[in-house]
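Please fill in the sequence for the structure shown.

STRUCTURE ENCODING:
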């Protein structure tokens, strides 16, 4: 049953295209290098207005040009020059907040390599977290779908991003393991997907000891969510970290580090968003989504530093830091996924601060041994305005995750190479699956940017959406 406290994850009406309308205001997207030639095509009054308002087609600059009757005749958005476009993304989306809440139609034929990405940016810019402060769609500028784009696909991507952002933005008081289960059910039901849930002490009887160990101290029972969809085609399994709040356990986080821990279920949000896109686009695949949903809490029965746990696949793990709990719950889920040896296994998690030190919050690192998948992801990340970067499963660091009294150490001493050692730890639980990729995402926009308001953020999911079909097609051709 879906809890009454589960987040509202329905379609954001403002993140859809507006229906065609004769009343839509023309919107011109003007590149700085084309400004002079474009201005020359305008009536003298419009040229004078642009001169008087200082419009220079700078990236994100907006001009509202009135007609002879004083009503808005057209809007103009500056797209900047080539250097701007090399370092900025979603320039058009960044202008949405500066436009009046009217319906616009794009009067510029954008280059093919920018067209869908910039229009998607408009949809993403319309996102608002409305759970606790409602916003009506009428307060946001709308866009009629331009010709030559796959509008339904873009809306699917926008809805998935809204889902990811909503889930991450929802505080732990309203999103615990039970509510995350409800959110997964809400994603599954419209597509006829099946959701099986293993809760509480049943995790022990069904051999998920690490998930149970991490979540047992919380008042809200831990669980494993197992969603399946599709009967034929390649099998894709998505595993997402669902730590709904992370206190650090007995290795308690300081307050400053605990402030954003509502987002520690960001991996779960990401795989639910990706799954929703796959099902909405009706891919011919067998899809499975596994989410260990827990809280890492403090109580008398909490796991302790120095404890040794036996994972689902039989490996022993020394718990040298209870705040390195994400890799523990993922280990059991990855072991279950690996038992079926899917064609592709994707793991997504807000896992390490080390990944942020290495690449910052905007660039999502991924780890894979599959050369073709890595190349496809790097290419797709650029095309989809969803930047990702490959990091190595560096084999010499394997010794760092071997404590001596157990097979594995969940928190190697020294702290160096933390994102890599965490990825190597996870890979130990994937023995039979030939194609595995792990994403260590941040899932958060620290300050507002174009089409990315401050708060929860999807990373890597659009790159995966674009890359996976190419990789699976290559398998068929091979």
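FILLED IN BY: designer on duty
SEQUENCE:
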């Amino acid at each position: 049953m879906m809890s009454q406290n589960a987040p509202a994850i329905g379609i954001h009406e403002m993140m859809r295209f507006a229906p065609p309308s004769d009343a839509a205001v023309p919107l011109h997207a003007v590149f700085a290098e084309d400004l002079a030639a474009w201005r020359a095509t305008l009536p003298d009054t419009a040229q004078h207005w642009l001169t008087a308002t200082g419009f220079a087609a700078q990236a994100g600059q907006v001009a509202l040009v009135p007609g002879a009757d004083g009503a808005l005749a057209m809007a103009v958005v500056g797209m900047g020059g080539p250097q701007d476009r090399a370092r900025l993304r979603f320039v058009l989306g960044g202008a949405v907040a500066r436009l009046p809440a009217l319906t616009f139609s794009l009067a510029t034929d954008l280059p093919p390599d920018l067209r869908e990405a910039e229009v998607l940016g408009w949809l993403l810019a319309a996102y608002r977290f409305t759970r606790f402060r409602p916003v009506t769609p009428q307060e946001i500028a709308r866009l009629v779908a331009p010709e030559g784009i796959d509008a339904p696909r873009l809306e699917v991507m926008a809805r998935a991003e809204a889902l990811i952002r909503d889930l991450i933005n929802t505080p732990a008081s309203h999103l615990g393991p039970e509510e995350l289960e409800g959110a997964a059910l809400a994603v599954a039901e419209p597509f006829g997907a099946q959701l099986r849930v293993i809760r509480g002490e049943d995790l022990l009887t069904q051999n998920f000891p690490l998930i149970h160990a991490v979540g047992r101290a919380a008042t809200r029972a831990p669980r494993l969510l197992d969603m399946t969809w599709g009967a034929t085609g390649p099998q894709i399994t998505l595993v997402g970290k669902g730590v709904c709040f992370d206190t650090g356990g007995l290795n308690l986080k300081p307050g400053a580090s605990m402030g954003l821990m509502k987002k520690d279920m960001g991996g779960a949000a990401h795989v639910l968003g990706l799954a929703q896109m796959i099902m909405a686009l009706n891919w011919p695949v067998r899809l499975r989504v596994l989410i260990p949903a827990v809280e890492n809490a403090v109580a008398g029965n909490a796991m302790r530093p120095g404890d040794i746990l036996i994972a689902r696949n039989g490996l022993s793990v020394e718990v040298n830091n209870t705040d390195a709990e994400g890799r523990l719950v993922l280990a059991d889920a990855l072991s279950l996924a690996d038992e079926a040896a899917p064609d592709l296994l994707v793991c997504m998690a807000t896992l390490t601060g080390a990944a942020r030190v290495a690449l910052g919050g905007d660039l999502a690192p991924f780890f894979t041994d599959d050369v073709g998948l890595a190349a496809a992801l790097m290419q797709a990340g650029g095309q989809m305005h969803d930047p990702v970067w490959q990091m190595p499963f560096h084999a010499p660091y394997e010794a760092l995750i071997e404590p001596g009294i157990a097979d594995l150490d969940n928190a190697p001493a020294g702290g160096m190479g933390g994102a890599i050692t965490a990825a190597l730890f996870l890979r130990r639980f994937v023995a039979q699956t030939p194609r595995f990729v792990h994403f260590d995402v941040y899932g958060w926009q620290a300050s507002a940017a174009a089409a990315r308001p401050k708060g929860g953020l999807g990373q890597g999911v659009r790159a995966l959406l674009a890359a996976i079909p190419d990789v699976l097609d290559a398998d068929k051709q091979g």
